[in-house]
Amino acid sequence: MKSDRGDIELAGVCKSFDGITNVVDGVNLKIADGAYCCFIGPSGCGKTTILRMIAGHEDPTAGEIVIGGQNVVGLAPVQRRTAMMFQSYALFPHLTVRENIAFALRVRGQSKTDRLRAADAMIEKVRLTQFADRLPAQLSGGQQQRVALARAAITEPRVLLLDEPLSALDEQLRVQMRQELRRMQRELGITFIHVTHTQLEAIALADLVVVMEQGKIKQAGAARDVYAHPHDRYVAEFMGGQNVLSGRVEKVNGASFTLAQAAPDGIEVPLQARSTVKVGDKVDIAVRRDDVELVRPGRELPTGCTTSLPSRVLAIEYQGYFVKVMLDTVPDDEFVAYVPEKTFFADPFTVGDVVMATWATGSALPLA
Amino acid sequence: MSAVLADMPDSVAPETTKAIAPSKGGRPWTFYVLATLFSLYVIALYGPMFCIYILSFQDIRGGLVFPMKGHSLHWFVDLFTQVRTGDVKGSFDRSIKLAVIVTIITVAVSFLAGLGFRKRFCGDTFVFYMMIGSLVAPGLVLGLGTGLLFQALGLNASWYTSALGAQLSWTLPFGVLVMFAVMSRFDHVWEEAAYDLGASRWQSIRLVMITVLAPGLVAVALFGFTLSYDEFARSLQTAGSLNTLPLEIWSMTLNVTSPSLYALGTVTTIVSFIVIGASLGSIVLIQKKRGSRVRG
To answer: CA of A52 to nearest chain B CA: how many angstroms apart?
Structure first.
């Protein structure tokens, strides 16, 4: 209560509903004050449960939740100074926009004139002035979301928790509201924690992206880090934009190693500082889809490329500024090249063509 | 209640026919078949009651059967002035008081049961089936049993003790069932939101739950009132020495042979309609109040 800081620390947080399986399993995480943090993962991975534990709607089975240096386990949301924006917004259907937003002040016993004045100021902030006297049912999805945001923000929380805030909106509105969330976060200057299952949403918004699987954190870091340098196969596949290949290490030579694969000379992969590999190890590597170049057989490889995998084109999808080419490069995994539109149409492929898939050797990334 | 139910098809019917045959051309033959069927239904529903209402407005020569002899309010005056017609005013008073008490208890208990059943608890299905059991138990037998039990315990049966209990065994399960239907439309995330915004348990119930559920609570009250107001079977053996109105009407059918009986029927119907009208009116008012703030 003394602290206004909204930095959060989760230490060994576990949650079990049945006493047998842990929905959240020993999560450790630090979130800086004023950060925009996105939890991302498939449904059932425990991300919403973590959010609800930070919000004070669930108690952890084990571990500590520290906000602004104070352990908040067992405290009510108001005492934690957190506010939650619910997935379906949970606006009170019998109250107008103004009364919904003033609700928190009303239960605190503020006088009617004071609380309505404060609500009106907040309504202006979210640009809903002309809708102040409407009921929630008379608002569009985007407007309802803004009411929910204002209702949560009026309590002057140090942490705002958002549970899939954009999932109820259509595509166009989602992009628009995404910007609005970011704007509000900057304006309020408080910590936002946002749960989503859309990776685009996460990397567009977050300072800190937390990828989860089955109650555990798989990787936490800056959006660009998580997207470009996935820690393992799961993160690479979940965040998308990567081709994941696996094979056995054939030989290790100084700064790189060679992976046995369908390619005549294997795949050369630079050895990252963290990976120690031995001959015979089974290793996953990731290659960004937009790093893959396609060359017709017999032509010379671009400079810096030492590996080339013969492939057949399975399907082609036009995506506007790039073309998605699906290949049968590796037997069991998907292999996709994102070819810039202009490059593709300079010498277009058709389904069934044989091509060589290649990439700059330095861009292949060994995974844990 | 029958009036409420009958009103619904009346207002809904034109809508549906419109949906089947979009205006312009003639209506399909099915419309006429269904319209005839509906008219017959309405006649069957209201015909018998209207016979009573019409015959209650005869003059002093009036008898118990058609044809109608003259028209006046004679039998209404007779009803309230003649001693031989029985204690109409007293039993009417008792019935209204009893119905009000039953309504209050039914609404309070049903609401609390609705709160209790939000979450599953040990033995909840058992409690639920026990309650439904009391709905299907034959009313006369249940009333008889209640009367006997009071006698065995050495208590005097009267309308505000034994009859109240017997009626509650009937209105409570109904009230709770209606409450369940009402509660199913209450999203519990609203309670969570209220808690998140700092509302205490009591504030969350008062400011969110009761206000959102108000129209449903009025419906529960209406059920409680009308079920109690015409309850006969359970009250027969439990009302003690003083009759409730349905019991009084029943005893009148045995010894009163004048259209006073019909006048009583007309008066009680009017009371029923006033109660139903007031309930529906208050629901409309609640909704209008919400709507008016929108304009204000």
So the answer is: 11
pLDDT of residue A28: 93
Chain centroid to CA A42: how far? 11
Give me the pLDDT at residue B26, please.
80
Separation CA B54–CA A212 (nearest Å): 76
Partner residue opposite B203 with nearest CB, options A56, A83, A107: A107
What's the pLDDT band for A1 if we cut at 50, 70, 90?
very low
State whether B294 and A93 contact (CB < 8 Å). Answer: no
**Shortest distance, CA B207 to any CA of chain A (angstroms):** 9
**Which residues fall within 8 angstroms of residue B160, CB to CB, at 6 or more apart?**
B97, B98, B101
**Residue A103 one-letter amino acid:** F
Cβ atoms of A143 and A131 closer than 8 Å: yes
Q: In DSSP terms, which residues pair with A10 in a beta bridge?
A: A29, A65
β-partners of residue A354 are: A312
Alpha helices by DSSP H, B62-188: 74-81, 88-116, 124-136, 139-152, 162-183
Confidence bin at B130 (pLDDT 50/70/90)? confident
pLDDT digits (tens, 9 = 90+) for A330-355: 877 889 999 999 999 998 999 999 99
Interface contact flag, B294 A88, Cβ < 8 Å? no
pTM of the model: 0.77
A208-213, strands of its sheet edge to edge: A82-85, A159-163, A191-196, A36-40, A208-213, A216-221
Interfacial residues of B (vs A; Cβ cutoff 8 Å): 187, 189-190, 192-200, 203, 207-208, 211-212, 290, 293-296
